[in-house]
Amino acid sequence: MPSYRSLHRPTLSLLALAVAATLTHPALAAPADAPTTLDAVKVTAASDVEQARAALKRVPGAGNVVDLSRANGRLASSADVLAYQPGISAQSPGNEGTKVSIRGSGINRGPGAHASGISVSLDGLPLTGPGGTPYELLEPLWLSRAEVLRGANGIERGALALGGAINYVSRSGRDSAGLEVQYEAGSRGYQKRSVGYGGVSGDLDYYLAYTDSEYDGYQYHSAGDGKGAMANLGWQITPQLETRFFVRYRETNHETPGRLTREQIRHDPRAANPANLAIDARRPQPGSTWLGNMTTWQIDADSSLQAGLVYHKYPMDLNESLYRQQLDYSNLNATLDYRRRRALFGHDSVTTVGLRVTHDLDADVRETLRYANNGYAAGTHTRDFSHHGTDTTVHASNELSLNDRLRLQTGLALINTRRDVQVTWPYTPERLHDSQWDYAPRVGFTWQQTPATQWFGNLSRSVEPAHPWSMIWGSNLYFPAGNGASTGRQRAPVELDNQTATTLELGARGDSSLGHWELTGYYAHVRHELLTVEVLPVPNLFLAENNASPTVHRGIEAGLDSTLWEGPGGRLGLRQAYTFNDFRYRDDVRFGSNRLPGLPRHAYQAELRYDHPTGWYAAVNTDAASKMAVDYANSFWADSRAVFGTRVGFDAPSGRWQLWAEMRNIGDRHYAATVTPGYDDAGRDVARSTPGEGRSVYAGVRWRFD
């Protein structure tokens, strides 16, 4: 079984230069009574996005900052948010359940499931809990930016997973003042409406938004909808004390069309899996609530304390198999971070100590039959089970400036994972009550070779505990005959080891005549990798998760944003992102050095764009990837893809409105967007893939009123 916001101020040297320039101005040689007029000097603070990018340069590893305030295309899911980013794979099956992977994290997950392998936060507050990462609150139109720290670079956020950390930052009254209305529409019934209002009043700032959407979907039986509201309220209590409250509520519902064979994707990609149609498979999520607070105390010029607390309730009503599973999910998550700058051995030093806790308040499941089966009527009670967890991470790190160019970062994180899993009806005494301690050390550096070129690297360890629910679904312990409708269902959990990895990462970034560039390579030895295999398909869907034999994850991540031409007539730019993935077993008894299925080895995205000074623009883009294995035996492969698109639009120079239109997959290329792996398909073409979207057209308009 497979087997980073300090306010930007002019520096002292810049102020001194300004004073010196003024004192030496020729006007000062005039008589004292002569009127003197000096040019106005405008000093502006760096934007939050600029500050985030400056912070990224202090990280001894790779990352991304995605500025969503500049988005001018469809924003339907995380796949749109994370497009054109090196090192990130984000593919949507046509709904919001985007499969996001960094460095092979979560390679075991199909779309629509709670994601794993990446620690996701909303405004610095943990969204990822012991059971993974739900996706229904990740509404793109509510975001100002996304900050990604790839791999072990997320240690200061308590992120220990192989893929690293993503922090989605909400829009606020400080960056989105006034009333804004947005409308998107397009192929196959897609519509999205949004209204937001923000502003600043004295020491208060606020942003409120409501969004709803609907779509028929690319595949048959893939329609869905969603609606929700959010609020971001900040209060600068004193110059040293700020608190901010976050509220999100959203409902989603979508049909589940199921996976297809390669032959179906080639010739009939809009088809639905017959088994999913037969049982009307769907995934209602009746309402997720997020209530959070982040408070920051600037103790003095050199130290700060930040505390966060969030309550997250997200019930689910899964109707994706013969069984209906009603889940009462709720979490209480907390963060505490203390940061202090001081001199250490005569060098500038910044130390951070933090605590991150994610705790399941409720994770109980009631399971019933959706349809009559084996002589039992629809609605028959089959099982109750609970799968609770608590993950506690204590982390400490230090950044030491050895000289003007070289910085050294060291860190250590300790993690305690608790799991409490049991089938409570029919009652069984076989309860898993487990507590484990693990650790993740890290050492890294940044070297500013020239003002335009920086090298970085780190050696680190990552830790990822198994989700409590996977200890039920990965179980091979079943109710025997004589247990009524519960017969054949898992009766007890099994223990799973923490997935760990030791990773070496080296890279560089900077600016040159070619443009802004980055290049990173990494090599990770992974032990007990948590991999999933589909044991039984729909309608009796059974996905088992187990620890694998040792594996290797290695790859290259490259990005380049170039200005090809610029003049009075406008600018022609090209942005590119390339990711090389090599994930494989290390001498597995059965699979040798086979590649892990589910992600392509090569992935490339690019956009060539012309911007006219009046605000008009036009772009062409491409998304290409190599073939990918669909089973661990590497006996069958999904086809490669190369799709092309185009976009035109207008950004009013006043900033008050914009419009855009785009066509995706112009050639109507049929391809697999995601794969949910099988064990050994023996060369058979099994339904394991979800199709990428075919040819489609979308348009949108945004109005802003002060």
From TrEMBL:
It is found in: Cell outer membrane. Keywords: Cell outer membrane, Membrane, Receptor, Signal, TonB box, Transmembrane, Transmembrane beta strand, Transport. Residues 199-666 form the TonB-dependent receptor-like beta-barrel domain. The keyword Transcription does not apply. It is a multi-pass membrane protein. Coiled coil: none annotated. The keyword Transit peptide does not apply. Residues 75-165 form the TonB-dependent receptor plug domain. PROSITE patterns: TONB_DEPENDENT_REC_3. Residues 1-29 form the signal peptide. Its main location: membrane. It comes from the Bacteria. PANTHER family: HEMOGLOBIN AND HEMOGLOBIN-HAPTOGLOBIN-BINDING PROTEIN 1-RELATED, TONB-DEPENDENT OUTER MEMBRANE RECEPTOR. Belongs to the TonB-dependent receptor family. Hemoglobin/haptoglobin binding protein subfamily. This is TonB-dependent receptor.
